[in-house]
User: Which sequence fits this backbone?
């Protein structure tokens, strides 16, 4: 908000791009900024050019009491006597005066304007150029979908780009009302951090995280009931192939062959590529490159950006027909709960990577310089953290309890011996992320390797360990006794 308001109050004219994945608060951010600077906010709809123009005229008439018209020659009367887009945009510039504060006009859902009228971007560019020549303090704002939207060639370079995104791991967990480390982690993993997923009010005391998720996601009157399908249906004309891709990606980061093997009806990579590119451009899917690879490397893995969408595609969609929306808790226990543990385990490396990026100095002597994954013929690490002091942390995460701490340590040590990444650095540190804690075998290994670090959910979520906090016991989350 501060960055946007700074751009909108600048005496120099220009246009601002607000963009980001759907659900990350673009419209809410814009509404607050427009109220603060007494601007005009036009919310475009998927209508034709004439209908959109009528709606914009109505907004100007209501908020300004007059339809602004350009000054000087060059603008002939238009059919019907009403000004068109060009006249209105240029007229707003001509009515802006120095000393009266900036004139701000924002277009939420600008894609509908750009798609409905081919000349709209050129008309906006003409108005901006007129503002520049006259020194008129005019700012126009376009809201577009995606992490890197394609901009019309007619528009000049934006004076500012504001990108919205999800809340961080800890902030999202706090906003969802999580208390204990497991509860906070599970709420983030199942509901994500997008502002559109956050609850309207505080959670009632005594309501467990499973009840919260079941009520919001599975109940017919839940605010997130069938939300992913509704959003995909709004964005894509034929969402079936996109849903197939997302269902496959719910299993975790996948490379190209792994993804192709899981998407039915795909014979060649060329059939899948445009759908994946579209999902990536909208910020629904993100691509990962192994650490140390060049910028243009084709060695990539793909994953769903929003943990909630991954949870819904992996745990809810496969049993959607079996879920009774009038009895969400019974459906959760019977159909969803058996799948949740694997989803939480898949989310653990993502949470660990964010912890390294933002909070590594809580346990190490320096913040992170670079964080990512590492894979290839040598070894596969879900997370590697290169700290500012040169220390390299090689991470293994495990929430399943299938292997002892000693075996996990030995496997991690063997992978560290095989990899050449970070070779030659003295402080090569094994890091284990174990929600269930340290067993005796691992304790003995740690005595022989003093740099070994073990993190648990209390470390990741930023909360002190609670004596009664649930831990992973015998392959499931349970309350420890005694």
Assistant:
């Amino acid at each position: 908000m501060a960055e946007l308001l700074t751009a909108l109050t600048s005496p120099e004219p220009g246009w601002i791009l607000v963009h980001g994945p759907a659900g990350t608060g673009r419209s809410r951010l814009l509404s607050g900024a427009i109220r603060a600077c007494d601007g005009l906010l036009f919310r475009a709809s998927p209508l034709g050019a004439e209908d959109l123009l009528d709606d914009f005229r109505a907004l100007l008439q209501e908020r300004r009491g007059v339809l602004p018209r350009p000054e000087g020659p060059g603008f002939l009367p238009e059919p019907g006597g009403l000004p068109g887009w060009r006249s209105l945009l240029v007229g707003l510039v001509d009515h802006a005066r120095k000393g009266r504060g900036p004139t701000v006009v924002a277009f939420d859902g600008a894609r509908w304007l750009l798609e409905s009228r081919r000349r709209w971007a050129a008309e906006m560019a003409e108005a901006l150029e007129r503002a520049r020549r006259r020194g008129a303090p005019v700012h126009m704002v376009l809201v577009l979908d995606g992490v890197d939207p394609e901009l019309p060639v007619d528009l000049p370079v934006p004076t500012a780009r504001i990108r919205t995104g999800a809340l961080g791991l800890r902030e999202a967990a706090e906003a969802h009302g999580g208390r204990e480390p497991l509860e906070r982690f599970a709420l983030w993993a199942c509901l994500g951090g997008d502002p559109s997923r956050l609850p309207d009010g505080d959670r009632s005391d005594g309501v467990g995280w499973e009840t919260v998720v079941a009520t919001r996601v599975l109940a017919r009157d839940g605010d997130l009931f069938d939300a992913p399908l509704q959003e995909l249906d709004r964005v894509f004309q034929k969402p079936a192939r996109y849903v197939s891709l997302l269902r496959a990606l719910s299993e975790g980061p996948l490379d190209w062959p792994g993804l192709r093997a899981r998407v039915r009806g795909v014979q060649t990579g060329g059939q899948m590529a445009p759908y994946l590119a579209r999902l990536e451009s909208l910020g629904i899917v993100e691509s990962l490159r192994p650490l140390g690879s060049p910028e243009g490397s084709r060695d990539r893995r793909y994953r769903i950006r929003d943990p909630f969408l991954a949870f819904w595609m992996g745990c809810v969609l496969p049993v959607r027909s079996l879920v009774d929306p009038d009895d969400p808790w019974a459906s959760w226990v019977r159909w969803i709960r058996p799948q949740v543990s694997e989803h939480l385990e898949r989310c653990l490396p993502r949470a660990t990577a964010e912890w390294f990026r933002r909070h590594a100095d809580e346990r190490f002597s320096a913040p992170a310089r670079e964080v990512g994954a590492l894979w290839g013929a040598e070894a596969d690490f879900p997370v590697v953290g290169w700290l500012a002091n040169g220390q390299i942390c090689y991470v293994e995460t495990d929430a399943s309890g299938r292997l002892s701490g000693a075996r996990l340590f030995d496997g991690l040590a063997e992978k560290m011996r095989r990899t050449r990444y970070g070779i030659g650095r003295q402080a090569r540190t094994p890091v284990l992320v174990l929600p269930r804690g340290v067993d005796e075998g691992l304790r003995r290994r740690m005595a022989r390797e003093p740099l070994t670090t073990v993190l648990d959910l209390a470390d990741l979520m930023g909360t002190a360990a609670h004596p009664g906090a649930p831990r992973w016991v015998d392959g499931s989350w349970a309350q420890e006794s005694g």
The chain has a mean pLDDT of 89. DSSP finds 18 helices and 15 strands in the chain.
